[in-house]
Amino acid sequence: MATAPPQAAPPYPTTLVVALSMAAGFLVTVGQVHPTGNTKWDVVLVGFLAGACIHAATEAPWWVLSAAAVAAGAATWRDGNWQLVTVAVGALALALVTARYLLPLVAGASAALTIAVLCRLGSGPFFGATSVFALLVIVSLFLVSLGHQPKPTRRIVWVGLTTLGVLMVAGAIGFAVAAGSAVDALSRGNDAAKRGIDALKAGD
Fold first, then answer.
1. What distance in Å separates the CA atoms of residue 189 and residue 39, rounded to the nearest whole number?
2. Which long-range contacts (CB under 8 A, 24 or more apart) does 10-16 make?
3. Which of 72, 77, 104, 202 lies 20 to 30 Å from 131 when distance is taken between CA atoms?
4. How far apart (Å, rounded) are the C-alpha atoms in residues 161 and 49?
5. pLDDT tens for residues 139-171?
């Protein structure tokens, strides 16, 4: 009975690819996206998610990387930002290189450049249009790319994202509880401020 051929060893250590992906995620997004309004939390949240997408894209087929780069370039072409268009062209060139050679780091670099462009899009036809567009492209790139990762990697990524989601929900609940408990104090403070203003007007 024939046996399956052994899988080829990855060209780079997994830890190296993960580390470079996370570093690239933080590098291309820092200070550009503010989903929560908390500067430190935004850097951590956005950088981690971008790094996860870049790591997933290290095994993505060339056409997925190319489609994402073209979408990013088309979006920034509208704004006339030729510097970002150049970056998108670079992302496309790297993606096309992976059509012939299996180069995870090159694929990750293509994804990183694409994400860098998407994080810097200008205003769209309506409020939030570019944010929605960028999110759709990045999520699509992540989901399609993740399907080409080995099963253990997919499991680790989903566990990490689930943990992050739980922490976000817990944080939101904590914020809601804290805000609810502060309503009475805020109301009393507002009443006291009004009484103080009235007293000042009365010369008291």
1. 28
2. 10/104, 11/102, 11/103, 11/104, 12/104, 12/105, 14/153
3. 104
4. 8
5. 999 989 888 777 766 676 666 667 666 655 655
